[in-house]
């Protein structure tokens, strides 16, 4: 019985490659065209970023470039102090992702392995928290943060306000819902027989969680790590209100440094904006394979 | 074990993910170490703010300067430290963000001194107890500042709260060479102004560059028309919420404004002020009502070619006695950790010596202090300074003269609404008045 | 056939196991579970739900965000009345959010589904196409706003320069004309949304049991028939996810319009109105919270629908 049950859960075989007929060729043409259309705005942004402002203000943005260089990128990098702000973002994103995955997998594990009355309300509690607009909670959150003191070795402002920990915690609280939901779905597809076997062997809750469920959930966790990095890295609203010190702001704030009090060099800004996008792109490209697999297994249940 | 890995990779993939997970965990631990290190690095000192500032030698300064302004400010604070021995720790946040988060900033743990503006925006925070009065600092500054400037630095309770250092005027700018070529002369009255616009239109130019995508440039036109038609005092009262917007005076302003609309840039609501400045520089537009920063992205070769005239007279009773000339300066937060040091710093910012250090590094601004060194001013700047000096009444611009929530949530959309639909002035002023009552309370 | 029997068998076995499993957990286990659930609950409750309830309460006040609790004055439903009657930006914002919803639902999501379907055919270069199509999601919405400007600006944008000379004659004011700018922006919003949908849908398609499709092919179904009669129903959980994500993205739309022109003059959105009133110097906390509560109520409905549906699935 077990064997049969396992067999139905075998992942899909790759469809046999059909010979390349005219239909397939048309498909390729379609995809190439659409792909080019898809990335054309980005290409345009790159093109613009490689031209000095003097060039575009003299000839317009749609013109053959008279000068073509990476000056804007170099200047944006130094003027916006991108590396510094990038590290700020990392300081917030990495611990946040770790905690999000830890908490959401923990809750997902409990909800999927044990039938408690509070399972469904709990999932609603978490999921709805992620679906609320951020602005709704900013002011009260700010007040709350001002009230909570922290020892100065954690936060040099002495409070949860204006501290990295504060940013980390709100990101964790806000994003855990989405991940809990995905992981709960995913974990339900893992056969209960495995937990059964472990329990019979004398493994308690914690052992089952760490040694069975987490390793089996690797694809989903990898996928969520990618998504969460994108979300947290690209967010700017939390830091706007909860951080006061200019040098602690995340990279999304760095771009503002490229905007002058009066005048903004759009080419420079484009260069800076493109560079800030590089880490998220890299994360996606590296984890692509795991990414698609992971979300798959979370959504489909037989 | 289980069959959950995909058929192909197996161990290679597992190993990848395993090491990825290890990386994640190490990364987490590393980040934990990093942020404690990073947090203290961000402050540049091992000790937290309170302890450092309490030592008799440091003042903290919150600044919105960007680009060249940062260097200019640094030059001033460096000299201050050399003079007094008090260190200055500057916390720089970009201009827009600084304004956006001012409320949470001032109520959180603000720096001792912070950059801000004159006008109602300053008075509002002072009235809420978020700033410290600095009358004693002004004792030394009063002879050095024009009376209009002191008035703009005074709170609603009669005490001074701001030390000003720079400003710029709003006037109608044009390119000399273009005017010379076409034989234009600066108008003094409204009739001359319209006639000039007509002539420019016939010559194929956009007579008046106008750009209101950002919402605030249109306020400049409203302000100046209101001051010309109804007088400075009416304007101040209107901004303070003491007059009704649904009144013949306000309607007269909008009606006068419709006379200008045919001469404006096409698609004005999609253009930023930089687009307008570009139109001026490229000789596509004949004139542009804007602040002195209009030339900030001009090619250096074109900058000497720029001149201006003050907005023409409409009602002879008022003449040209008022302009917008927003003033920037510094204030003290409500309980600075180093009160005496903070007062010394703001006092210093107001001096001629300070602004003489600042301006060469961040040109395009004018000093407020009467004793400042103006020898490095361009001819244009000299003219601008003379304009401000001889104008009887200085307004701070709508978004600094009235309640910020009224300016941003009501006036910006309302002015854009006017530009889209200039036919319905009655409906517009009624709508503004209703919202004004909701905000001001009466 | 074999599949059906096997599925039934395993369900029966599972059921049996479930009934048999009157699990008694040790105290240590109970503590572990309490901690594993308790900490996230506490964090989410304290940092999300508590401020939300506070915001709802604040929407009945006229607080300006300055001063302590004693400065807060209760004014009942005044804020709500004002929003609905005298706030000129409110109804346009409401309307635009619905346009956003229609555009995402009828253009963005189907486009994403189509792309996913084609990519699922696993042709050469799939990875490359996937990466290309995913780029808009990875790029921050703020950057998309900047790109929108670069392409659509009447003076300097790509479109204007290609199809008209901005220095003379008439240009179409894509971003400044309130009648058309929402649609121009929606093109870019759909571009991004389609990418997001594509990835989710592709994931679902890849997990689909190929025997289903093979069976349909054997039965002589055309590609369209196979899709609508076999694939689509089998992907019901994914479809629900897509529907709700689409609705939520439409209601939360913010970044693109904010970057372009601060969400004014034809680009008003509810989230922008909230930001205008709460964040920044305006600081009309009570008023802004009222708008936020309106948005919250509109968001809660799809959330409840979504979760209810997915739990019907989960318990099945």
Task: Walk me through this protein's architecture.
The complex is a heterotrimer of chains A (302), B (442) and C (316). Chain A is mostly helical and 302 residues long. Chain A contains 14 helices and no strands. In chain A, α4 crosses α14. Chain A is flat. The two termini of chain A are 16 Å apart. The longest helix of chain B is centred in the first third of the chain and has 33 residues. Chain B is globular. Chain B is an alpha/beta fold and 442 residues long. In chain B, the strands form three sheets. In chain B, strands 2-1-3-10-4-11 form a six-stranded mixed β-sheet. In chain B, β1, α3 and β2 form a beta-alpha-beta unit. Chain B starts with 10 loop residues before the first helix and ends with a helix. The N terminus of chain B is likely disordered. By secondary structure, chain C is an all-alpha fold. Chain C folds into two domains: 29 residues; 228 residues, MetI-like (MetI-like fold, Orthogonal Bundle), CATH 1.10.3720.10. The two termini of chain C are 21 Å apart. Classes of the chains: A mainly alpha (302), B alpha/beta (442), C mainly alpha (316). Chains A and C meet through α1, α2, α5, α6 and α7 of A and α1, α2, α4, α5 and α6 of C.
Radius of gyration of chain B: 26 Å
Largest interface: which pair? A-C, 109 and 117 residues
- Backbone shape of chain C: flat
Any idea what the CATH superfamily of the largest domain in chain C is called? MetI-like
| N-to-C series of helices and strands of chain C | HHHHHHHHHHHHHH
Question: How many strands in all of chain B?
Answer: 12
Task: Summarize the SSE layout with pairings.
The complex is a heterotrimer of chains A (302), B (442) and C (316).
Chain A: H1 2-8, H2 22-49, H3 53-59, H4 71-79, H5 82-113, H6 119-131, H7 138-147, H8 164-188, H9 192-200, H10 205-216, H11 218-233, H12 237-242, H13 251-254, H14 266-299
Chain B: H1 11-43, H2 49-54, E1 58-63, H3 68-84, E2 87-92, H4 95-100, H5 102-107, E3 113-117, H6 120-127, H7 135-141, H8 147-152, E4 162-167, E5 170-175, H9 176-182, H10 190-202, E6 206-209, H11 217-230, H12 232-239, H13 248-258, H14 273-281, E7 285-291, E8 306-309, E9 322-324, E10 327-332, H15 339-349, H16 352-361, E11 366-367, H17 379-390, E12 393-395, H18 398-401, H19 404-420, H20 425-440
Parallel strand pairs in B: 1-2, 1-3, 6-7, 9-12
Antiparallel strand pairs in B: 3-10, 4-10, 4-11, 5-7, 5-8
Helix pairs in contact in B: 3-16, 7-15, 11-12, 11-13, 19-20
Chain C: H1 2-20, H2 27-58, H3 78-85, H4 90-119, H5 126-138, H6 141-152, H7 158-163, H8 181-207, H9 210-218, H10 223-234, H11 236-252, H12 255-261, H13 270-278, H14 285-315
């Amino acid at each position: 019985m077990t064997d049969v049950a396992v067999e139905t859960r075998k992942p899909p075989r790759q469809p046999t490659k059909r010979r390349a007929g005219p239909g397939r060729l048309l498909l390729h043409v379609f995809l190439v065209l659409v792909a080019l259309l898809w990335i054309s705005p980005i290409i345009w942004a790159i093109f613009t970023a490689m031209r000095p402002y003097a060039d575009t203000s003299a000839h317009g943005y749609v013109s053959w470039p008279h000068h073509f260089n990476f000056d804007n990128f170099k200047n944006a990098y130094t003027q916006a102090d991108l590396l510094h702000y990038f590290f700020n973002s990392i300081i917030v994103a990495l611990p946040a992702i770790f905690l999000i995955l830890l908490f959401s997998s923990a809750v997902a594990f409990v909800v999927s392995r044990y039938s408690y009355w509070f399972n469904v309300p709990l999932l609603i509690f978490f999921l709805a928290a992620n679906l609320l607009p951020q602005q709704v909670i900013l002011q009260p959150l700010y007040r709350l943060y001002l009230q909570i003191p922290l020892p100065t070795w954690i936060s040099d402002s002495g409070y949860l306000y204006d501290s990295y920990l504060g940013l980390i915690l709100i990101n964790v609280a806000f994003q855990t819902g989405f991940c809990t939901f995905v992981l709960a779905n995913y974990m339900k597809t893992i056969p209960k027989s495995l937990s059964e076997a472990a329990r019979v062997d004398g493994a308690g809750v914690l052992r089952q969680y760490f040694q069975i469920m987490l390793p089996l959930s690797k694809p989903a966790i990898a996928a969520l790590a990618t998504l969460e990095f994108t979300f947290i890295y690209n967010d700017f609203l939390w830091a706007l209100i909860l951080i006061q010190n200019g040098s602690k702001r995340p990279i999304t704030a760095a771009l503002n440094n490229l905007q002058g009090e009066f005048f903004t060099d759009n080419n420079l800004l484009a260069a800076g904006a493109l560079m800030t996008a590089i880490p998220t792109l890299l994360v996606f490209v590296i984890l692509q394979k795991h990414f698609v697999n992971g979300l798959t297994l979370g959504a489909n249940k037989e | 074990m289980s069959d959950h890995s995909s058929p192909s990779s197996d161990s290679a993939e597992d190993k990848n993910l395993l090491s990825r997970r290890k990386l994640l965990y190490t990364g987490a631990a590393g980040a934990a170490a990093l942020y404690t290190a990073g947090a203290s690095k961000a402050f540049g000192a091992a000790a937290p703010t309170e302890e450092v500032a309490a030592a008799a030698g440091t003042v903290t300064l919150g600044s919105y300067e960007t680009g060249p302004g940062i260097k200019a400010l640094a030059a001033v604070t460096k000299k201050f430290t050399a003079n007094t021995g008090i260190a200055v720790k500057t916390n720089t946040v970009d201009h827009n963000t600084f304004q956006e988060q001012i409320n949470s900033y001032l109520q959180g743990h603000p720096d001792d001194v912070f950059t801000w503006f004159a006008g109602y925006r300053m008075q509002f925070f002072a009235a809420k107890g978020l700033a410290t009065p600095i009358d004693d600092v002004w004792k030394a500054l009063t002879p050095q500042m024009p009376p209009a400037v002191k008035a703009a630095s005074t709170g609603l309770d009669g005490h001074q709260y701001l030390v000003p250092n720079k400003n710029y005027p709003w006037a109608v700018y044009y390119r000399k060479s273009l005017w010379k070529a076409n034989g234009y002369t600066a108008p003094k009255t409204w009739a001359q102004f319209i006639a000039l616009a007509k002539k420019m239109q016939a010559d194929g130019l956009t007579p008046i560059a106008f750009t209101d995508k950002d919402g605030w440039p249109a306020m400049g036109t409203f302000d100046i028309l209101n001051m010309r038609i109804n007088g400075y005092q009416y304007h101040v009262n209107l901004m303070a919420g003491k007059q009704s917007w649904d009144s013949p005076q306000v309607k007269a302003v909008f009606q006068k404004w419709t006379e200008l609309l045919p001469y404006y840039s096409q698609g004005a609501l999609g253009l930023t002020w930089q687009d307008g400045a570009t139109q001026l520089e490229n000789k596509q537009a004949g004139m542009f009502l804007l602040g002195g920063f209009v030339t900030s992205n001009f090619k250096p070769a074109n900058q000497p070619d720029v001149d201006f005239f003050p907005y023409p007279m409409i009602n002879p009773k008022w003449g040209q006695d008022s302009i917008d000339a927003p003033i920037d300066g510094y204030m003290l937060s409500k309980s600075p950790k180093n009160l005496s040091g903070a007062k010394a710093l703001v006092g210093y910012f107001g001096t001629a010596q300070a602004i003489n250090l600042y301006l060469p590094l961040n040109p395009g601004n004018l000093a407020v202090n009467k004793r400042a060194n103006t020898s490095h001013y361009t001819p244009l700047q000299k003219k601008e300074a003379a304009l401000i000096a001889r104008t009887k009444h200085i307004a701070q611009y709508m978004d600094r003269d009235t309640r910020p929530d009224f300016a941003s949530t009501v006036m910006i959309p309302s002015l854009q609404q006017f530009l889209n639909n200039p036919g319905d002035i009655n409906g517009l002023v009624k709508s503004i008045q209703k919202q004004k009552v909701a905000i001001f309370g009466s | 056939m074999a599949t059906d029997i096997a599925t039934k068998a395993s369900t029966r076995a599972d059921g049996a196991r479930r009934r048999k499993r009157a699990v008694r957990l040790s105290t240590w286990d109970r503590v572990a579970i309490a901690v594993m659930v308790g900490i996230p609950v506490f964090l989410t409750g304290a940092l999300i739900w508590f401020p939300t309830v506070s915001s709802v309460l604040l929407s009945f006040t006229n607080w300006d965000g300055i001063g302590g609790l004693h400065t807060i004055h209760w004014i009942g439903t005044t804020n709500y009345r004002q929003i609905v009657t005298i706030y000129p930006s409110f109804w346009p914002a409401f309307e635009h959010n619905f346009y956003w919803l229609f555009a995402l639902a009828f253009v963005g999501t189907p486009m994403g589904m189509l792309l996913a379907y084609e990519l699922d055919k696993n042709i050469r270069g799939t990875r490359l196409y996937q990466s290309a199509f995913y780029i808009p999601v990875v790029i921050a919405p703020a950057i998309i706003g900047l790109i929108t400007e670069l392409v659509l600006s009447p003076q300097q944008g790509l479109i204007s320069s290609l199809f008209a000379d901005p220095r003379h004659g008439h240009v179409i004011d894509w971003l400044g004309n309130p009648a058309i700018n929402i649609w121009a922006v929606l093109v870019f919003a759909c571009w991004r949304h389609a990418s997001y949908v594509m990835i989710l849908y592709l994931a679902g398609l890849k997990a689909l049991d190929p025997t289903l499709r093979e069976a349909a092919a054997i039965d002589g179904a055309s590609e369209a028939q196979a899709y609508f009669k076999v694939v689509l129903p089998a992907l019901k959980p994914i479809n629900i996810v897509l529907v709700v994500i689409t609705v939520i993205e439409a209601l939360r739309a913010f970044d693109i319009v904010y970057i372009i022109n601060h969400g004014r003059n034809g680009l008003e959105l509810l989230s922008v109105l909230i930001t205008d009133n709460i964040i920044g110097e305006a600081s009309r906390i009570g008023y802004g919270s009222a708008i936020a509560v309106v948005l919250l109520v509109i968001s809660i409905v799809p959330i409840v629908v979504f979760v209810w549906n997915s739990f019907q699935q989960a318990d099945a």
